[in-house]
Amino acid sequence: MAFEERPINADLPPTGGATAPAETQEPTPPRPPKRKRKPVPAALKAIAGLFLLAVVFIVAAILGGRGGGEESPETPAPVSEAPRKSPEETTSSQTSSELGYPAFATANTTRVGGGDPASTAAGVALATFPSTQPSQRPAAVTLVDAADWRTAIAASVLMAAPVGAPALVSEADGMPEATSSALAALDPPGSSATGGSQVFAIGAADAPDDMKTRRVTASGGAGAAAIAALREKLAGAPPRHVLVAPSANPAFAMPAAAWAARSGDPVLFTGRDRLDKPTAAVLKATPHTAVYVLGPSSMISSAVVREIAKLDPRVRRVSGEDPVESSIALARYSGGDFGWNVNDPGHGFVVANSADPLDAAAAAPLSASGTWGPLLLTDSTDTLPAALRGYFLDVKPGYTTDPTRAFYNHIWVIGDQEAISVNEQAEIDELAALAKIGGEE
Predict the structure, then answer these.
(1) Which of 29-43, 224-238, 371-385 has the lowest mean pLDDT?
(2) Could you give the CA distance from residue 149 to residue 154 in angstroms, rounded to a whole number?
(3) Is 387:399 a contact under the CB 8 Å cutoff?
(4) What is the dihedral of CA 51, 57, 59, 61, to 10 degrees?
């Protein structure tokens, strides 16, 4: 049988307490332009079919395992074979794609290859919370608005303890099928830590009628401030730190999502030349909380930093000249109990394309579970930028005598091959591989 040509994850569905007081609605900047679609490597056709089969059986197992009390005979899982190639196909090319390069996982990388943010978020949520048993389910899920990247990134803070709510992507006119399926599989029960809520709905995000939902009605920077207030109420204490990101450029804000999910530090937004009022209100209410400004002065001016310092003198800037370098700066940063301080081997990492801001929110649970690691950005579909390659070389793991006693790096790759190509994933895998250091081979 022959597999039809289609992109990775072609079979996945397409995208699409007290309520915090709503602030003045802010206009949401236009979404970044979509990249031009590229032809799919030949080997990914078979992999896409195998991946779909795995997803279908995982979701079926989760949902079916919650069915009636009657026992059913165990049935072995069917085996799907990749299509056989003709001699002409086999000998035509011996590139990695022709040889069946494993795009969804390599020795040192795992891809969550959703073709859109809703599918990616669903995949991450189910990877983080397999939900085959009640103990594996999250207490709540956050539904973020696909049209508002700022509140989506800010909502990543709800993944942090004690709430632990992964993000799923919804829309004003309904939930994408991937989101509906994942929400049914996750089946959040609510808890005391969530105030009994099963769902946190942000902005205009559509939410189910049959679950207890708590909604943050504001959008943009006002919505981020309302999410910070909600997080403080649920946690029962103010945060240790606050991140302030530029509202005009989502790429500089993306790495904040991972840190917010890991730490519980909220993400706020401001313009370049004037401190936004909702952010100023939060900072004024928490004068003893350290503030970290993300991005260079071209994104958030020194005048705004001085304005922040009047409200809270404990303010620092963490940045690079571009989004890639800024993501590395936050990964390296160490300031007391703030910062990843990832400057050596033996860590987890998440890599996403800087053109896809919603992927930062979708991937945030991976930074608060498993191998807990920072979000790093690439600004290319095909090859790693030099700064990111250099950083991975700096933290490349090695061993002298016994590789089983070494430290390892593991890297999550976010998005399909239109976001990060197979070639770029292979490059990442090579940089994460354990290397022999000195001695005889």
Answers:
(1) 29-43
(2) 9
(3) no
(4) -150
Nearest to 300, CA basis, from 228, 229, 243, 364? 243
164-181 as b/e, with b when 16 or more CB fall inside 10 Å?
bbbbbbbbeeebbbbbbb
Predicted model pTM = 0.79
Contact 103, 417 (CB under 8 A): yes
For 142-198, how does the pLDDT look when each residue is reduced to its tens digit (9 = 90+)?
999 999 999 999 999 999 999 999 999 999 999 999 999 999 999 999 999 999 999
What's the pLDDT tens digit per position in 14-49?
A: 433 333 334 334 444 544 554 544 444 433 343 344
**Tokens at 153, concatenated:** 């990134």
Residues with Cβ within 8 Å of 228's Cβ and at least 6 positions away in sequence, in order, are 154, 157, 239, 242, 266, 267, 268, 282
> What pLDDT shows up at residue 227?
98
Q: With bands split at pLDDT 50, 70 and 90, how would you rate the model's confidence at 102?
A: low
Per residue, the 3-state secondary structure of 304-358, as one string, reads HHHHHHHHCCCEEEECCCCHHHHHHHHHHCCECCECCCCCCCCCEEEEEECCCHH
Q: How far apart are CA 332 and CA 349, in angstroms?
A: 12
- Does residue 61 contact residue 132 with C-beta atoms inside 8 Å? yes
Burial class (CB in 10 A: 0-12, 13-18, 19+), 375: buried
Residue ranges of the domains in the chain? Answer: 1-13+40-67+75-88, 105-436
Give CA angle at 307 (23, 248), nearest 5°. 55
Closest CA to 214 of 226, 225, 222: 226
DSSP at 84: P
User: What SS3 state is found at 133?
Assistant: coil
The structure tokens listed for 176 are 């994408």
Pairwise CA distance, residues 234 & 247, whole Å: 25
User: Which one-letter amino acid corresponds to residue 84?
Assistant: R
DSSP 171: B
pLDDT tens digits, 325-369: 999 999 999 998 999 999 999 999 999 999 999 999 999 999 999
Q: In what order do the strands lie in the sheet with 375-378?
A: 109-112, 410-414, 348-353, 375-378
**Neighbouring-strand partners of residue 112:** 414
